[in-house]
Design goal:
The protein is of the alpha/beta class and 268 residues long. The chain has 13 helices and 9 strands. Helix 2 crosses helix 3 and helix 2 crosses helix 4. Bound molecules: S-adenosylmethionine. S-adenosylmethionine (SAM) binds next to helix 1.
Length: 268
C-alpha cells in the first residue's frame, strides 16, 4: 500500500523534482532515465498530478546539469567525497556512482526519515540527518580527507539572503579548496512563482534573489562555471531531446525566468 507523507512546507517541494524525474523516465526520450523515481512515486500516497507545467521538466534539466558538475569532479578525483545538502529523494549517487566515490546525502529530519524508508547506507554511501545551516556534520564528511564536492540543489533559494550568505561564508572557510555547486535565481524568476502552476500548488516560496552569481565571490567562493537551461554543458545538451534543446535555447535568450535561473560551480 502507498505510504502517506508528512513533510514541512519547504520539505514538501522535494516531491516536485521527484515527480519530474518519474515523468521523464516514462518519456520516449528520457534525459535521466531514473526508474527509481517511478517506483518512489508509486510508493508514495500523494496527489502528484497537481504538479503541472514546464518547471517539472526544468527540475530534470537542472539535475542533469548538476550531475555533469559532479561527473567532471569525479573524472578528476575518482576517490573524492561528494555531499548533497538537501538531497530530498534524489537518486544522484546511483546516477553518477563511479564505484569509488564516498558519498553523503544530508537532509532535515522529516525528509530523511522518508528517505530512509527507500534507501540504505552502504560502505560508500551514508545518509545524514541534519541541516545545511548547522556544522555538526562537517567532521563526518571530511573524515576520509582528500578532495570534496558540496552541492545543494533547489535548497538555498528558500532561505533569506542573510542566512544564505552566512552559510556560504562558513562552508567556504571550512572546506577551502573544495568545489561547491548551487543554483541562483534572479528577481524575475522569484516574481513568476505565483503564476507558475508547479509552485502555485504548494505554499513554500523561494525568497533568496541573486541575479549575478559572481556577486557571491566576496563570501570566499570563486565562480568557475555558470549554466542556464539555454547553456548546458555540451555533453548534457547531447542527451536532451532536440525539441527541448531548441526550446531552451530560445527561452534562455528571451524568457527572463529561464535566463536568470543559474546552476553555478564555485571553488571554495
Ligand atoms: C526542492 S527540494 C530539492 C531536493 C533535492 N535537492 C532535489 O533536487 O531533488 C528542497 C529540499 O531542501 C531540503 N531542506 C529544507 N531545509 C533544509 C535545511 N535546513 N538543510 C538541508 N536541507 C533542507 C528539503 O527537505 C528538500 O529536500
Amino acid at each position: 500500500m502507498a505510504e502517506s507523507v508528512d513533510l514541512g512546507e519547504i520539505q514538501e517541494t522535494l516531491l516536485i523534482p521527484l515527480y519530474g524525474r518519474a515523468r521523464d523516465a516514462q518519456a520516449t526520450t528520457s534525459v535521466l532515465d531514473d526508474h527509481t523515481a517511478i517506483d518512489l512515486v508509486d510508493a508514495i500516497d500523494y496527489d502528484f498530478e497537481k504538479f503541472r507545467g514546464p518547471s517539472l521538466a526544468g527540475s530534470v534539466l537542472r539535475a542533469a546539469i548538476f550531475d555533469e558538475f559532479v561527473r567532471d569532479f569525479l573524472r578528476e578525483h575518482p576517490d573524492g567525497t561528494v555531499v548533497d545538502l538537501g538531497c530530498g529523494l534524489s537518486t544522484r549517487f546511483h546516477r553518477v556512482d563511479n564505484g569509488r566515490v564516498r558519498w553523503f546525502d544530508l537532509d532535515v529530519p522529516d525528509t530523511m526519515s522518508l528517505r530512509r524508508k527507500y534507501f540504505e547506507d552502504t560502505d560508500r554511501y551514508t545518509m545524514i540527518t541534519g541541516s545545511i545551516f548547522d556544522e555538526d556534520w562537517y567532521d563526518a564528511v571530511s573524515a576520509r580527507g582528500g578532495p570534496i564536492f558540496l552541492l545543494s540543489e533547489a535548497v538555498l533559494l528558500y532561505f533569506d539572503e542573510e542566512r544564505v550568505h552566512d552559510v556560504l561564508r562558513r562552508l567556504s572557510r571550512r572546506f577551502a579548496g573544495g568545489r561547491l555547486a548551487v543554483d541562483t535565481g534572479g528577481a524575475l524568476m522569484m516574481k513568476s512563482q505565483d503564476s507558475n502552476p508547479v509552485f502555485r500548488a504548494l505554499p513554500a516560496r523561494m525568497v533568496w534573489t541573486c541575479g549575478d552569481p559572481r556577486a557571491l565571490e566576496p563570501l570566499g567562493i570563486k565562480l568557475l562555471d555558470s549554466r542556464t537551461f539555454g547553456t548546458p554543458q555540451r555533453s548534457v545538451a547531447r542527451r536532451w531531446p532536440s525539441t527541448t534543446r531548441f526550446l531552451m535555447t530560445v527561452l534562455g535568450r528571451f524568457a527572463p525566468p529561464v535566463r536568470t535561473y543559474k546552476m553555478n560551480l564555485f571553488e571554495m
